[in-house]
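Project standup — Tuesday

K.O.: blocked on the structure for the chain from last sprint. Re-posting the sequence here as requested.
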Amino acid sequence: MIGDKAKGSVSVCRESPKNRRDIDQQSRPSLHIEILSFILCITSPLSVIFYCIAYHHFDTSLYAAARAAYSEGFFYFFATRFPRPSLISVSCYAAWLALQAILYVCLPGEIALGPVTPAGRKLKYKLNGLTAWCLTVALWAVGTKSGLVDPTIIARNWEGLIWTTTVFCVVAALISYAKACVLPGVETENLKTGKSSIYSLKIE
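H.V.: unblocked you, prediction finished:
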């Protein structure tokens, strides 16, 4: 029954031109929302990198790291201590993403509808995340018990993983934003609905 509803979600949620204008008007963020979106886009990755630098170079002291950033200058502080990638960190993260994609596709789960998008659609989601998490933990336990997986691999490659995950998230958000601008899923579903570019990038 849920699946049948999901299949008809696009046609059910199509709106009239009047409703289209109402949705466009509601989707325009206020100035303080745009400012907050800009701050979040800039500070979120930098805060993660700052903590990583404090962990590696200042014995996890955020105060000491902040003092060094203030005295040295923020550009020099980050440029000389920016996390560096490693082959093993990139490989491990790519393998983890591939595993999660396989689990999402292969594991069973009910189909649920998400909130209404600015284009008036409801996207379909497969509710198998908890099952995928349990199976991931089980595979990790079996791998470490059998010696196939090093249980300290995350701790020993923390810096490289921070770099890999941060860069991946930024690139994925930019690709999603560009795709929504150039090749929207349906004709009416794009980012040209009165919303600011910064706000649209943040919600990606």
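K.O.: great, moving the ticket to review. The two ends are 30 Å apart (CA to CA). The longest strand covers residues 110-116.
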